[in-house]
User: Fold these one by one.
Assistant:
Number 1:
Amino acid sequence: MGIAADRPLIVINFKNYKEAQGEGALRIARAAEAVSRRTGVPVIVAPPQVTLMQVARSVSIPVFAQHVDDVEPSSTTGFVPPESISASGASGSIINHSEHRLPEDAVGRLVRRMRDLGLTSLVCASTPDEAARLARFSPDYIAIEPPELIGTGRAVSRVAPDVISRGVEAVRAVSPDVTVLCGAGIASGDDVRASIELGAMGVLVSSAIVRAPDPGAKVEEFARHASEARGR
Ligand code: G3P
């Protein structure tokens, strides 16, 4: 399934939360798929690396890796080269998440390698300045996430709205084709709506969905608000 860049979208990073291990990853991915189908809102899931192939085979929404390494498909024990992601059936990867940072030159090489393999790159940045620097590599997506808000339930769109608006402007100035997302602390549909109204094209979210008693209901809440938001 392709990824529309013209409609607000939701990217769910499952991280390594215990709710997302093994069968848990499949359950959350299937719930996300059902909501995406019902609402028409694009949803991308990034399950734990070891479940990647299984999840990619089980759902029709895009599945991303949580991390990719700038190594060759060779004697590189335990690393994940872009070729592994392609072979797993996933369609892209998060790169440079603040919990798994990479040197900037490696990010640039990975975006190029991913593109050559037909894979989608979602590059994370902690600040508008970093987002502008990484935008010169022209990834498909840049997600701006202030690390201090991650996992707190204090949404970037409420606590630091200027980070989103400045980040969107900064990326546009360098590379207008890059789709800008935001994340960190997004906990409610209103947080999603505010993110989009501040200029982001969607959200990168984790704990509010993955740790929810009913992840499907939470994705649905986010999707409803995403589709009702008036982007700018
Ligand atoms: O990758 C998404 C993430 O870092 C945000 O996490 O739990 O604040 O939604 P969370």
Note: Residues 13, 97, 145, 150-151, 183-186, 204-208 surround SN-glycerol-3-phosphate (CB under 6 Å).
Number 2:
Amino acid sequence: MKILVAVKRVIDYNVKPRVKSDGSGVDLANVKMAMNPFDEIAVEEAVRLKEAGVASEVVVVSAGVAQSQEVLRTALAMGADRAVLVESDVELQPLAVAKLLAAVAARENPQLVLLGKQAIDNDAGQTGQKLAALLGWPQATFAFKTEVDGQQLLVTREIDGGLERVALDLPAVVTTDLRLNSPRYVTLPNIMKAKKKPLETLSPEALGVDVAPRLKVLEVSEPPARKGGVMVPDVAALIEKLRNEAKVI
Ligand code: AMP
């Protein structure tokens, strides 16, 4: 089984994002970037399936600026075999990414495409679902556990109030949730080995995909500053405040 894993370069989750002074977006100048955490989980799952003898090849793909090579190299150091960068300086929205991934899937013919459930920069949570629709493949989102059973993939999904188990015919699209696994740390020898692994660069034009944004961002603003908390002397005072000030009861 060949697995394709989509990895996005995003602002590192430890960094507090700053909004540009003109409100046109988030300031990325001199900001530490890293692989989207849900995509690390997707790479880990693919590498584990390879180590278990289920997958034969793990190909990682990223769409974005040239520096996205860094997250691809990290994925290669985690154990992926090969990387594809679809290089573009255009701001790529989920529909454009899904179209690019569909075009890469058409070239690579994977039996499984793994993505994160959401990118932590835009919190869109759309790309996997759009990709499955474009390919016409079954999808299981928010995966908590995966098991391969012949030509089927059994996925336990996190849903409101519990877990749901679904069986998908392959090829299929799966998006990862937080509890699927704990991604490994990359070791120095593996980082060195990853430098020699193949990384192919393509363009959206070569894949025949129009990546022009379909949505226009009107304004980006900081969330309102939180007001300071107040200590109340007793439960009666708390209820009085909830009723008369917050008006929530
Ligand atoms: P989103 O729909 O933007 O929240 O992203 C969901 C998932 O789609 C991410 O966790 C990635 O696996 C994948 N993805 C989104 N954008 C990109 C990108 N530019 N390159 C590669 N994968 C991406």
Note: The chain is about 25% helix and 25% strand.
